[in-house]
Amino acid sequence: MKKAMKAIDITKEILPIELDSLFDTVEYENYGIFKIDKVVFENNLIEFYFTIKILEELLDEGEENYQWKLKITDCKDYHIEDSTNVEASISVFSEHVLLSHYQKSWKELFFKQEGTNLNQLFVDLYNLHHFDFEYFIVPEKYLANDKLSFLVNSESGLFARGPEDILDLYFNLLLKYGKEPYYFQNNIKMDDKKKDELKIVFLGNNYFIGKQLEFQKL
């Protein structure tokens, strides 16, 4: 049985101490707001401007604003969802499910039996994406057919094509429900040098994947 995926948190190594400490304050916990000011795109370079507001509602001084800029070099992917988050935080990872697309060797996963208890297999596959992948990856991204029910009820064929650690989790489920999974061995290998270059940074409900992350106070 193959192991579940792990995330490696390197936030303390990347985030400036002043910015990291701000998120740990009682003031931010009680009155903090994370707000996107603007995002500048220039080829594969992104500048992400944001303000951390402390709404000092119980003090005479009024709110405090801390303005920062994050520069992402050689950006591979991003997701911008909310312009304002209450009590949002910043986290940086060197290994994460969303980095697997770029860091891991790719495989093709097949199966050769219909299997048993297929309704539960269907449920478990969705739970995998919801709980393990936290819905960062939709089920259709790597599966061979965008109709999961058709794929689950098939007797044999290609199940998925994608990063090996994600496919290992699919492998576990197919094995559990008797579909006799196996890999096609013509793997697409990743250059070891490229594996360590990318990082992913989460800013509230937004994220960026890039080679270098540089925070600057404005």
Description:
This protein is α+β, with helices and mostly antiparallel strands and 218 residues long. The protein has helices at 11-14, 17-23, 26-31, 100-103, 118-132, 148-153, 164-176, 192-195; strands spanning 8-9, 32-42, 45-54, 64-73, 77-79, 84-86, 90-95, 106-111, 157-163, 181-188, 199-203, 206-210, 212-217. The protein has eight helices and 13 strands. It has a five-stranded antiparallel β-sheet with strand order 1-7-11-12-5. A hairpin with a 2-residue loop joins strand 2 and strand 3 (45-54). The mean pLDDT is 86. It comes from Chryseobacterium caseinilyticum. This is DUF4261 domain-containing protein.
Q: Would you tell me the overall average pLDDT?
A: 86
Based on helices, strands and strand pairing, what is the structural class? alpha+beta
Largest sheet: 5 strands, antiparallel
Helix/strand order: EHHHEEEEEEHEHHEHEHEEE
Oligomer: single chain
Number of helices: 8
**Over the alpha carbons, how many angstroms does the gyration radius reach?**
21 Å
Q: What is the first-to-last residue Cα distance?
A: 50 Å
